[in-house]
Design goal:
single chain; 520 residues; binds 6-O-alpha-D-glucopyranosyl-D-fructose; five-stranded antiparallel beta sheet; alpha/beta
């Protein structure tokens, strides 16, 4: 397997070679002592990101929002929520990021808005409202119940419909009742959302992460699901041809701007060949999330299968993979894999597979999820653990000016950025080293990919670009494994930070990840 799309002869695109760092603004750093992170906080720690060596930042939503889904319920797409700052603060942050060569992607939420958005207020005001058809309104079923059997995300017992007594109809919401779905079949909606993109592109953002963008095309008949799927949220299987022309026109909006703007779509499907379709012929998404590895557990066989499926599905259509091991919706690496050693070995794979890696803030510190006592649970999806605040300093307040909105992750002082910086054995320095190794190797950033023979619990692959070559070994086993490597190799990076710069002796330690280079 050698992704022709990724070879060094292809035109260079920053979004293929960069590492994207996801910031959850509420939890990054607070500067106005309200317990919630803000844009100024991100600016204060911008050098952490530049030193880390990532190339792009993705900010989870910063728009005006009642925060029922913590910003994924947008009430004004063209303003910053006062919790986070204002537009002038955003412009300053964008400037500081660009000064350091960091690209900035905003989260764009196309499928739904908040019930408090002016569009929805107008839409629900009467059946004859000029914006009635901006959302998905339907009459009750014959028995007075919801128009079909779809259920909402987060709660399989709740219909994806809420009855609006004033106008006697139901509106569709694939997520919370506070997040009504927009009707993308209406050209006015499409044009209004394009304007949202232009608003931010004009300000200079480098692109977007598009929230559940596979949901925007809908069959207007809204047919019932078969009984076996009737209690599942559609998010994991909604695969609708009507989405593709919408994506092509979204792509057209970005392509009209100079500077290689890019869009990465959250296509939350489980089948890599289905996800590949959302790249179109290079005329839909630039990148699409693929959560195959996130779902593969700590299991070399499942990783190998997931990676093979992605590479084989993407190569023929010229799509470029993404790799995701965590985000603001999922447990952190250490929590999911059950040990820091495993999380560190997984980082070696994440940063050396062929494609664009996404790194969720705090993974570079090896944080695990915070324990959230019941009285502090606020998220409709129960996803607070991975959203715990980032500890910057050792001291008890960890660099935050007031008690944060969520509890600290375990060992926050010892895992703070301050405690880890300069300690070569720390997870932070491991990430910095891996990112340095990646930046300095064309093979890792943009080269070909091929599996290498290895014992079943070792993931082993080669990357190559002309005479630049790397081999990557990740041992999932709890004891060492021997790997026959013809030729002479030396260790470029080890997740255990052992033997770097030395000859590779043929063994990879328990739960260790290695990047090898041919001996000089
Ligand atoms: O969170 C999930 C599982 O715990 C996912 O199913 C999630 O709902 C799905 O990936 C969609 O996520 C995105 O859209 C949601 C928002 O709540 C998530 O934070 C966002 O990442 C609705 O906008």
């Amino acid at each position: 397997m050698s992704p022709t799309s990724g070879g060094p002869t292809t035109r260079r695109r920053w979004w293929r070679e960069t590492v994207v760092y996801q910031i959850y603004p509420r939890s990054f750093l607070d500067t106005d002592a309200d317990g919630v992170g803000d844009l100024r906080g991100i600016g204060h720690r911008i050098d952490h990101l530049a030193d880390l060596g990532v190339g792009a930042l993705w900010l989870s939503p910063i728009y005006r929002s009642p925060m029922t889904d913590f910003g994924y319920d947008v009430s004004d797409h063209c303003d910053v929520d006062p919790l986070f700052g204002d537009l002038a603060e955003f412009d300053r942050l964008l400037g500081r990021a660009h000064d350091r060569g960091l690209r900035v992607l905003l989260d764009w939420v196309p499928n739904h808005t908040s019930v408090e958005h002016a569009w929805f207020r107008e839409s629900r005001s009467s059946r004859s409202s000029p914006k009635r058809n901006w959302y998905v309104w339907r009459d009750p079923a014959a028995d007075g119940g919801p128009p079909n059997n779809w259920v909402a995300a987060f709660d399989p017992d709740s219909p994806a419909w809420t009855y609006d007594g004033r106008t006697g109809q139901y509106y569709l919401h694939l997520f919370l009742p506070e997040q009504p779905d927009l009707n993308w079949a209406n050209p006015e909606v499409e044009s209004a959302q394009h304007d949202v993109l232009r608003f931010w592109l004009d300000r200079g953002v480098d692109g977007f992460r598009a929230d559940v963008v596979h949901l925007i095309g809908k069959d207007p008949a809204l047919p019932d699901e078969p009984p076996e799927r009737a209690s599942q949220s559609r998010v994991g299987y909604h695969h609708e041809p009507r989405t593709h022309p919408l994506l092509r026109r979204i792509r057209g909006v970005l392509d009209a701007y100079p500077g290689d703007r890019a869009i990465v779509g959250e296509i939350n499907l489980h089948d890599s060949s289905a996800i590949a379709e959302y790249h179109g012929e290079g005329d839909e998404l630039h990148l699409a999330f693929n959560f195959a590895l996130l779902r593969a557990g700590w299991n070399a066989r499942r990783w190998r299968t997931a990676i093979t499926e992605v590479v084989e599905a993407y190569e023929p259509v010229g799509a470029w993979p993404t790799w995701v091991l965590s985000n603001h919706d999922e447990p952190r690496h250490v929590t999911r894999y059950g040990s820091v050693a495993r999380a560190r070995a997984a980082a070696v794979a994440l940063l050396s597979l062929p494609g664009t890696p996404f790194l969720y803030a705090g993974e570079e510190l090896g944080l695990s999820d915070a324990a959230i006592p019941p009285h502090l649970r606020v998220d409709p999806g129960g996803r607070e653990g991975c959203r715990a605040p980032i500890p910057w300093e050792r001291g008890p307040d960890h660099g935050w000016p007031a008690e944060p909105w969520l509890p600290w992750p375990p060992s926050a002082g010892a895992l703070s950025a301050e405690a880890q910086r300069g300690d070569p054995t720390s997870t932070l320095e491991l990430y910095r080293h891996l990112l340095r190794v990646r930046r300095s190797s064309e093979a890792l950033r943009a080269g070909t990919f091929a599996w290498r023979d290895a014992p079943p619990d070792v993931l082993a692959f080669d990357r190559g670009a002309e005479d630049d070559r790397r081999a990557v070994l990740v041992n999932f086993a709890a004891s060492p494994r021997s790997v026959a490597m013809p030729g002479a190799w030396e260790i470029d990076a080890s997740s255990r930070r052992k033997r770097e710069g030395q000859a590779f002796g043929g063994a990879v330690s328990a739960e260790e990840g290695l990047v090898l280079r041919p001996s000089r």
